Protein 1
Amino acid sequence: MFTAIFALLALAIVFGLLLGYAAIRFKVEGDPVVDKIDAILPQTQCGQCTYPGCRPYAEAIAKGEAEINQCPPGGEATIQALADLLGRDPLPLNEEHGEHKGKTVVQILEEQCIGCTLCIQACPVDAIVGAAKQMHTVIEDECTGCNLCIPPCPVDCIVIVPVEEDLQHWKWPYPAAAAGDKI
Amino acid sequence: MRHPLSKFFGGLHLDDHKSESMQQVPRVLPLAKQLIFPLNQHIGLPADPVVSIGDKVLKGQMIARPGGSISAAIHASSSGEVIAIEERPVSHPSGISATCIVIATDDEDTAIDASVLTDYENCEPAMLRDSIRDAGIVGLGGAGFPTFIKLKPTPGKVIETLILNGAECEPYITCDAMLMQTRAEDVLRGADILCQAMQARQCLVGIEDNKPAAIAALQAALQSHQFHHPIEIVSVPTIYPTGGERQLIKVLTGHEISAQRRPLDVGLVCQNVGTAVAVADAVLKGQPLIERLVTVTGSAIKNPGNWVVRLGTPIQHLLAQHAVEANNDIIIGGPMMGFTIDNTQAAIVKTTNCVLIQPPQITKPAIPCIRCAECASVCPAQLLPQQLYWHARAKDFDKIQDYNLFDCIECGCCAHVCPSHIPLVQYYRFAKTEIWDREQEKQKADRARERHEFNLYRQQRKQQEDEERRRKKKELLNRAQGKTVSETDSKKAAIEGALARAKARKDAMTSAPKNIDHLAPEQQRQIDEAEARRHKQKQDKV
């Protein structure tokens, strides 16, 4: 009987040590789910979800503080991807946060710009270049269309322009489904 | 020496409709008033214009240079003046416009001086590749991949065989057949040059057996001329899509090449016969790629045939020769893989092999899939088209890639046999472009994330630096203040000391007279008397 007790005790100690070591050796820094959620979000950093950027929103989703349908730029595709990742039911986009629109960028009307640098400070992705009392301009390739630069502009010289489709970015349309063709 | 012919999986026997446009030799299309050159006629980056509006250009002059490592040059196909570099409609399924160089022709057709290499067999491969690159040659079979890139030697890979693709499997199209028939020697000469350029040991020309005249012409040219590499002409069974690169390789060599590998991995490179002729023209005549054979055919026109067309010619100009009625469908390419266009102002480009004019087609409405698996039995890529369809329909883009969507060559066999008339290829094209788009979006999002994180890091760093600066400033200020405090203290002490001294002096002054100490009794009595008098006087006054 004592042999059995000792054997089990020895095993418990060995496995306990092993687990304890593994917990230290393979410790995961941060929450990997946040990274996964953040990878799905469109990174516009627009704050329409009420969080100050995509990562804070990802953290809020991971904690269960936010719903998955608060991201208008991501739209349905993002909600679907988040639902798949988190095993939740996809929800329709919450209209309170805005509606899913086509891709846009902003442009600065350069002749009106007074060079106040307020938009540069507002841009979350450093997509506006310029200096004090110098004309500013938007690097359109880097602009995420978050429109955060528009409210601070004192002379209203920033305009939203839709991204035009070109041959490189053209997509075949979804075939018009015929009546009665159900999955 | 050659592997016996194999058979690829699936495929279809289609009515080839080739005889209609094979009745006469290719006619030369009169020059159009305007030539339109889209900057993106090939796979890869668009070309960069090297001319500006108002420039006079000559036939064969380069008007746009390659815009990157995977790109091709574009040459003026006749002499004239550049009148615009602007958005023009292009022959593309989307119908959207793209940047084009527009040349108004001057009818003189003056050619630029050309340099030729007649003894190509003694040329360095690199020299031949350069001349092919400078001629702006791309794969003329339809994909438009820049040819010189395929000729570049890859370290560790030896090219054994050049496969010359003369299968031309799609119905109606006859431009390659006509080219082989009328320019047999140039086809073989081009193949010989290509072999030299990539140091291939031999060349196999694969031609479907529904083109006996082309096979005979090539055989005759092979007998009567001297070539520097062994060339063999192989007649292959007519099954659609034998003209697909992997299908033709399978038939000719028995190699089945998986999606992850390229023909180069088994020592093979595939080129189209039209490309071979363009190479022969470029090397032996110094003529860049400025014209091609285009089949104009279809059941809605009279007198179908092939035309020698200068690149850049508006499709409208070509159709004017056939008096095409407006209400017909105009398809670029064949009936299986082509696409309809609405705007005939678009130009003939390097990859335009056929303009097919068909009476307006009534597409039968799609009805539900009954899972008959007909599609799977004809798919030459051995995919499961019905599974791809379900997932494309449900927009499940992860699942659809598990079923190897990107192995699909969009040959259209599945849709052709589908009893439910489901536009299967449209679903696959939709899924492919959607997946590419999402990948691009993802890359863009990753870059935005990186930039945002850097932005946050920078702000944080700035805040820290500001705090640090403020702290230092405060410290400096404090030190300065510490000095003043001790100064004021000493001053205060001095003042207080002086005050105390003054007070003491005052006290000393206001204290009792000093001459009343140690008085004699007489003096004391006199003082007392005086005090008593003063007291009495005070009382009297009261």
Note: The longest strand of chain A covers residues 104-108.
Protein 2
Amino acid sequence: MKRGFTILAIVTALLLCFALYEALIAAPTEQTMGNVQRIFYYHVPSAWTAFVLFLINFVSSIVYLARRNVKADILALTSAEVGVVFCTVVLITGPIWARPVWGIWWTWDLRLTLTLVLWLIYVSYLILRRFSTSGKTPVIAAVLAVFGALDVPLVYFSIWFFRTQHPSPVIGDGGSLDPRMAHVLLINWAAFLCLAWLLCWTRYRLEFLKREVEEAQALESLMETSR
Amino acid sequence: MNSMHYLYAAYIATWVIHGSYLVILMRKYSRVRKEMATLKK
């Protein structure tokens, strides 16, 4: 277990260094925006990674609601928290990219607004989990997560079905991304997925250990009162 | 502001966010492990 974590940490570090080199040096410079377009290699993979994590949160929440499985509950919490971290990166790198390109930091455009709403939903989820003392908290949080996940496809497809300030899809049908840029984008996504896995692993272990400590403390206080 | 400054700002912000989160996780993890060790004594 510990060896697997060390291997993952080394692979992630190497992949992140390589992805950084590819994004800053190897990738071709975009003709219209120039070097500032390289923010794309962090902004887009962060968004995709956040979507993957919110999807894991959605599936784990359904599993928890169906089976009351504690591991699924921990995985739901873990993926939501790491997903919020990646979504925060999206919401910070987006305006930094928008300022030199659009001339504004922020606009209440459909995709931007829906992404902010998505972030707020999962922050609410984490606040609920952190401060609610009710025994039903995991169930309420799982229900919130199921409804919150509905915002993910809305964010993703908003640029497909509506005309927005945000650029159209560059990959897939109708995408016009240079193959070398697509290659760098995928390397960065792989690196970010490894980082997300590493963070989730650490957070999962932390939560598991925390619950063990809480159980041990509860047992100890029970034994003290029975003496 | 030079466009390169925006690029560096975005990359630095990303690493500060991930780095801070990792440090917070590691600190919490070592604290919980200490608590566990104390309970086991």
Note: DSSP finds one helix and no strands in chain B.
